[in-house]
Amino acid sequence: MPVLLPPSQVPVYVLLLLAAIVVTGLSLLMGYGGQVSLGQASFYMIGGYSAALLAVHGLPTWVALLAAPVIATAAAALIGVPLLRLRGHHLAFATLAVQLILLSLAGRQEWAGGDIGLQGIPQLEVAGYEFADDVSYAYLALAALAVVVLIARNVVDSRPGRGLRALATSEVAAESSGVPVAGYKLAVFSLSAGFAGLAGGVYAFFIGYVAPGSFPVLLSFEYVVMVVVGGTGTIWGALAGATVITLLLQLLNNIGTMEGMPAAAPSVLSYAVYGLLLVLAMLFMPQGLVRGLAFSSRLEVRWGTWKTISSRSAKRRRSSA
């Protein structure tokens, strides 16, 4: 894809891959951990700022990139201890509050660049190779997504993954069966934050600066919409949701920035589409695109099999008659 796409579309492809990394972790959190986070962009922000600060202060850029998911995971483990005592919409609003607090703090701290943000982030360099163009970052983001998907698949197929599925169904039943509910909830919360931190680190080096405006609250809602549209509790659903929503938002942004459109058109169109997509997904595909399409294909196969059996039965009846 990075080679086939026109140069102007490669940045969109990079952002799509980074969104898929974050949404893969959020899909684990929502589909397997049974928790809803409206502040996933806060860990994306922590990863971005961590990588930027470490690189600006002279640490090797590859070390800064590796440190981004570690710092995001540690932050999630720290704040997750009190937050995960909450459930449902209480937890969702608490994670949203975390992002609002982080945005306020980043905008007020001089060491974080304030509202202007951190600029002059050096180019990422790994083993003497400098990532200097969009295509190189596209391959980097693609490699990061592959690692994240591999980890997520191994987690899902493991014994803890089965415990998480039981936990998402019923915490009481899972705990009575010996599943360490509190530990598993904190682990999947931290893992999803680590994925977001990795994406944030790549984003910081790709864009070259980070600021509070780079991580708006709307971004967290985007991630939730991607999970719901693609399908919770499935890795392919996360990838499909990230792809569909990113491309749709790019199309709406192009429409909203056309000549004669008001300045607020891109934001208004985005909010309208989020609402419409959520309503349509809940009405017609409550399990998401991937599972909905898979269910439809199974129905078609069963319908075809039933028609074949019925036709054969009719032929046997006619022949016997």
Structure in words:
With 321 residues, this protein is an all-alpha fold. The protein has 2 domains: 7-286, Orthogonal Bundle (ABC transporter involved in vitamin B12 uptake, BtuC); 290-321. It is 75% helix and 1% strand. It has 12 helices and 2 strands, in the order ααααββαααααααα. A two-stranded antiparallel sheet has the order 1-2. It is found in: Cell membrane. InterPro entries: ABC_transp_permease, LivM-like. Pfam families: BPD_transp_2 (PF02653). This is Branched-chain amino acid ABC transporter permease.
Which word captures the global form?
globular
What is the CATH fold-level name of the largest domain? ABC transporter involved in vitamin B12 uptake, BtuC
Sheet bearing the most strands, described?
2 strands, antiparallel
Order of helices and strands: HHHHEEHHHHHHHH
CATH class descriptor of the largest domain:
Mainly Alpha
Map the helices and strands.
Blueprint: H1 10-32, H2 40-56, H3 61-83, H4 88-108, E1 125-126, E2 129-130, H5 134-157, H6 159-169, H7 171-176, H8 181-207, H9 217-230, H10 235-256, H11 265-284, H12 288-320
Antiparallel strand pairs: 1-2
Helix pairs in contact: 1-5, 1-8, 1-9, 1-10, 2-3, 2-4, 2-8, 3-8, 5-6, 5-8, 6-8, 9-10, 9-11, 9-12, 10-11, 10-12
GO molecular function, one term: branched-chain amino acid transmembrane transporter activity
Transmembrane segments: 12-31, 38-56, 62-84, 91-107, 137-156, 186-211, 223-252, 264-285
Main location: membrane
